[in-house]
Specification:
Blueprint (H helix, E strand, L loop, with lengths): L2 H10 L7 E21 L28 E6 L4 E10 L2 E10 L17 E9 L2 E7 L25 E9 L2 E6 L3 E4 L7 E3 L6 E9 L5 E14 L4 E17 L2 E11 L13 E3 L5 E3 L1 E12 L4 E13 L2 H4 L4 E13 L5 E14 L4 E14 L1
Parallel strand pairs: 9-15
Antiparallel strand pairs: 1-2, 1-3, 1-21, 3-4, 4-5, 5-6, 6-7, 7-8, 8-11, 9-10, 11-12, 12-13, 13-14, 14-17, 15-16, 17-18, 18-19, 19-20, 20-21
């Protein structure tokens, strides 16, 4: 069927009387295959474990008694998206949906390597308003380093996708986003996840572009932590502030992020640390944390480039409350070499070293060499 006919049919659902004057219809995404050779200091996680797909702080402490060196082949990061842009009765309307195959454990490597698609983004924007699931407004994905690892600098950046209502006016963005509270039990134990409460997370962000081409963002997060179940009933407030930037240096660039907060929890380092811990009376005490990264990308010529990245995160745990088995510090470093013989195709190799430390000084280390081939659709 003709693409324009399909797009017009979708847009007609917006209003039976709407007139689409200008429609742009796009398929996108990429195909990416990774080969990862990993060395876990304490023994490798099982096949299909999330740490075998990409670096997730807190998952590399390992399985004692298991082999330390493993090799993984995957094409799970490959993704597909669909987008429409239209002028409907004088209003700019965009719809976007994207799927990939990461994080699922429903497949295996024995025969078919089949994995279910997962939803990454699904939103509609209408003039200045956006409604749906996409990157949290607290995060600036355009400032992420160009690393082969799926996230890259995972502990140093806010990284969340969730449903939200966002308003944009020039460089200013204001959003109400999904609330979700993660709590450490008194003296430690399995994470408590609470979706109770009716107060959404609130984010404000300002984007600035200078005449030199540098881009900066400043973002603030305010959230109510809520825990209400058969055993606990308490609320607390958390906040975060984050500054990111992309600074041109001739043909090269520097990307960075710095984030600090109290009770940020899942917003930082892929929930390496929870937002709060329970005290002896069942009340929540927020956990403060700081994280950041810096990445320098150098273009050797128009086809070859390299990035070197350093990333870190530290939480201020009260061991009397959290116990000494919880995560406290995470650091990683990356260096890569990427080659694009044609613009859509990139072939590269990357070395990564990561260290995670608990309050009791138990450590997990990961060394990984990653080879990737990526073709942008």
């Amino acid at each position: 069927m003709d693409k324009k006919i399909i797009a017009l049919s979708i847009l007609a659902a917006l209003s039976s009387s709407a007139q689409a004057d200008d429609v742009e219809f796009k398929f996108g995404g990429y195909v990416k295959t990774d080969v990862m050779v990993s060395d876990y200091s304490n023994g490798a996680p099982s096949s299909g474990h999330i740490s075998r797909q990409f670096y997730v702080p807190g998952t590399i402490y390992g399985s004692p008694g298991e082999g330390k060196q493993v090799i993984d082949f995957q094409a799970r990061e490959s993704r597909f998206n669909f987008k429409t842009l239209a002028d409907v009765d004088g209003h700019k309307v965009t719809a976007f949906i994207e799927l990939d195959f990461m994080t699922h454990a429903d497949g295996n490597e024995r025969v078919s390597n089949s994995y279910s698609p997962r939803l990454r983004h699904a939103f509609v924007s209408y003039d200045n308003w956006l409604v749906g699931q996409t990157w949290t407004t607290f995060q600036n994905p355009s400032a992420l380093p160009e690393n082969l690892d799926f996230v890259g600098a995972a502990e140093g950046t806010p990284f969340v996708r969730q449903a939200q209502i966002r308003y944009t006016n020039g460089g200013l963005q204001l959003a109400l986003e999904t609330p979700e509270t993660t709590v450490t039990p008194y003296t430690g134990g399995s994470r408590i996840v609470s979706g109770t409460g009716i107060v959404p997370d609130v984010v404000a962000r300002y984007n600035l572009k200078t005449d030199s081409g540098a881009k900066f963002t400043a973002a603030a997060l305010l959230r109510q932590l809520n825990l209400d179940n058969a055993n606990y009933d308490d609320t607390a407030f958390g906040y975060g502030v984050s500054v990111t930037g992309v600074v041109p240096v001739g043909d090269d660039d520097i990307k960075f992020a710095a984030t600090y907060g109290d009770g940020m929890g899942r917003y930082m380092a892929l929930n390496f640390v929870n937002a709060a811990v329970l005290d002896a009376t069942g009340q929540m005490e927020t956990i403060s944390s700081v994280g950041g990264y810096v990445s320098y990308r150098h273009w050797w010529n128009d086809k070859w480039r390299s990035s070197i990245t350093a990333s870190g995160f530290k939480a201020d745990n009260d061991a009397m409350l959290t116990g000494d088995q919880v995560n406290e510090e995470s650091y990683s470093g990356y260096i890569n070499l990427l080659y694009s013989p044609i613009k859509p195709l990139t072939v590269g190799v990357e070395y990564m070293h990561a260290e995670n430390t608990k309050v009791n000084d138990d450590k997990g280390k990961l060394d990984r060499v990653m080879f990737s081939v990526k073709y942008v659709l």
